[in-house]
Amino acid sequence: MLFILHVADKNNWKRAVKEGLYENKSLDINGYIHCSDPSQITKVVHKNFKNKEDLEILVIDPSKLESIVKYEKSSSGDMYPHIYGPINTEAVIRTIDFSTNSKGDFLLPEDLGIQLNK
């Protein structure tokens, strides 16, 4: 199964579960929610989430999204998935507590096959 990932604040996600839709400030500012493929998550985390806590990774099944997903080129030249609209919570097939180990490395479950090193 192909899936995309989004790093979310735990409190925003909890609120979304109650409301049925997840939104964040990038949707208001840019018109889309930033996401990444599993192979891109390391770069995203180190650039945007260093020293942040209370994060969760939303594992999203794009086929269940009600909003449109477009892959678009970033300023670095990489293609990233952007969700143009809110994320309906039914499209989130899994959430992963996203924290660091004693060395400060971000870790994902082994079944995603990625360890996020600083």
Low-confidence stretches: 113-118
For the record, give the distance between the C-alpha atoms at the N and C termini, rounded to a whole number: 28 Å
- β-strand percent reads 25-35%
Number of helices: 3
For the residues shown, what is the average pLDDT? Answer: 86
Assigned CATH class: Alpha Beta
Q: Nearest-angstrom radius of gyration? A: 14 Å
The CATH homologous superfamily is named Protein of unknown function DUF952
- Architecture, CATH level 2? Alpha-Beta Barrel
List keywords for this structure.
single chain, 35% strand, ADP-ribosylation fold, 3-stranded antiparallel sheet, 118 residues, 10 strands, alpha+beta
Give a structural overview.
The structure is a single chain. With 118 residues, the protein is an alpha+beta fold. The chain has a single domain, classed as ADP-ribosylation fold (Alpha-Beta Barrel). It is 20% helix and 35% strand. The chain has helices spanning 10-19, 25-30, 41-48, and strands spanning 4-9, 21-22, 33-34, 55-60, 68-73, 79-84, 87-88, 92-98, 106-107, 115-116. The strands form four sheets. It has a three-stranded antiparallel beta sheet with strand order 1-4-8. A hairpin with a 5-residue loop joins β5 (68-73) and β6. The protein starts with a strand and ends with a strand. The relative contact order is 0.24.
